[in-house]
Every structure is written in C-alpha cells, then in structure tokens.
Amino acid sequence: MSEVLLTQEVGSLAKPNWRVEAIAGREITREHIHDAANWADRLGLDPIETEDILCQARHYLRTDGALRPQDAIAIKDMAALQAVRLQEKAGLDIIYDGEQDRSEMYQHAISRTNGIEPRGLVRVFDNRSYKKFAVVREPSIDTPWHTSEVERLRKATDRQIKVPITGPYTLGDWSFDEYFEDKRELVLSLARNVIRPNLIALLDQGVDWIQIDEPAAGTKNGETSLIVESFNEATAGLIGKFSMHLCYSDWRRLFPDFKALEDCQQFSIEFANRDSPELGRSAANRPGYEVLKNIHAAAPETSIGLGVVSIHEDILESPELVRDRVLRAVDIVGDPAKVFPSPDCGLRTRSWEVAYEKLARTVEGTNLAKQELGV
Description:
- It is a single chain.
- By secondary structure, the chain is α/β, with parallel strands linked by helices.
- The protein contains twelve helices and eleven strands.
- It has helices at about 15-25, 30-40, 45-65, 70-90, 105-110, 145-155, 170-175, 185-205, 225-235, 290-300, 320-335, 350-375, and strands at about 95, 115-125, 130-140, 160, 165, 175, 210-215, 240-245, 265-270, 305-310, 340-345.
- The longest helix has 22 residues, at about 70-90.
- The chain is globular.
C-alpha cells in the first residue's frame, strides 16, 4: 500500500434498519431480512447465513417478546462486519466498523461513565437528538468502552484501523455540571479519569492510531486553551498516534493556539461542506480549502484528514471534483504524504447507498490525484 494520499474513515455509518429494529426489540420484517441479505451478497458475505441469523432472532422476538442476548450480539456483529466490508469495497485504506455498537458518540461514552446521571433529550443537527447527562461526582470508568469492538475488528480485516473516541472537552461541554467548581476542573477530570484509561486500553490492544473526536471545539469563545490542555492531559507520555477530529467551526479561532497540542499527529477537518461544486484547483475554485493555509502555517508538521465529500446531502461529488480538492490541499500543504482524503465527518446521517458512493468517489478522486502527481 502506498503511504501517500491514504484514504480514511472518520467515524460513524448509519445503523441498518434491521439492526435498529431488532436491538430495540421491535418487529423484524421480511423487508429487513431481504435488505440485510442483499447487502451481504453485494459485500461478498453469505446472504443465507445473514437470513438465518435474522430469522432466528425474529422467531424468538415473536415467541418471547424479547431478543435473546446471543441474537443481539450476532446482529451487532453482522452489522459491524457489513460496515467493514462496505468500506473495504469502497477502497478505503484506513477503516473502522462504522461505530455499529455505539448508540451515539456522546451518549455511548457518557452513559458508561461513573458519576453521571441522565437529564433528558437535547436536539442536535439534522433533527437528531441525544440524551444529555449531568456530572454529579468525580467521573471514572470501570471498564474501557471499545475493547470488544477492536477484538472483533481484528478478526474482520487486515487493513489499518483508526479507532474514534469522543474527547474530554466535548463530553464536558455537552454535559451539565452539578459537581465541579468550574468547567476546567470537569474537562480535565474527564481527560484524566475517563479518556486516558480508554486510550491506554486501546494501546495495550495494539491499536496504533486513535482519533479523538472534539465536535464541540470552537463552539465557545475563549476555551481553545482548555481543549488543548485536556487533549494533552489525556495523551501525555503515551506511545501511539493520536489525531483530533473537528466539526463545523471557524478554524481561525483554534489556530495558531492548537500548535500547543503535544501529541496530535493529524487534524481531521471538514472542508467540502464550505466549498464550491465547480472544478479546478485554484484558490477561486476551492474557497472551502483556503483556511488550510492558516492551519498549515500554525502546525506545518501535522497531517490533515481532508474532508472532500459533504455528509449533509445526498448529492454525489464527482471523482474529478474530489481530485481537484485533493490537489488544492497538496498545493497548500506541499507534501501529499500529509494529506489523508476522507468524508467531512461520519456518514451516519446518510443511507448506506449514498455513504458507499461517497466513500468510493473519495477513493476514485484520490486515485486521479495520485495519477496527476505521479505518486
């Protein structure tokens, strides 16, 4: 595998309808079974085995009114395997399992944290909502969150993996604080007592790349130093590759302060969402990528997870448009080895049909850029 212009996932994929309904204890329909078997066939998996798993779960749901634990595990494993094969078929170099075990990036993490109590639903983008929690005492964890995901993924693929984990600043920012004196104490406690033990567990499993998701970064004025401090607190002295994924912010507010991040080897950032649909690699044609100049000037040694397809719409970017976005980034950064094309963010709000096409076009466009660059 060439080590230049590696394509990568960013995090989530949608959960298949059959997985959602089954885990919720609702009816598994014939349409669900057909959809799962169809995707299994498209992805080179056994459709008969897929049908058998869902039919068995359907039987026990109808008989007992509940899903048996072994059926729930089998269904989650099947969804994760299909998500892995979807990314492989699209051609991505660096993958994960689409976060098929996770309810939602905040809720999945915070609900597994000690010292937390639920407080109700909060609406977020794309008309989605999540459960918001309150910190009522010093947070901690009993068991790392992602161990079983990694164990399963190791058996499913031989491609490089990158594990996404929600960061301490976002967990603190999205929670009510009913215990600490100030936000800094809360966020640093989460970094030290919650995120760091998870990072150590992943490194002990042999994971060499961990993506720390901080979608809340940049949403509050005057808190850039806290984002930096909490990242450094979580990763200090650990031997591994750490990147930070950032969503939908004014990046000029974060840089150059982010150069104080001590162990961040990549910034994974959305750009396509702000860009023009026109072809071309000039500054005029690629307005969404001009802020990359500020980022690169502040952190010239840090690689860029380059968003080249939008995750907020079903419109499919052409490979040629992806190519031009990649080439513009290489022009700015100067080194194609520091550019990692990807979607803007996780693709959980898009159907698998659309997600696959966007990932495939990310790869196709990147290959066109490689051809032009001769790498």
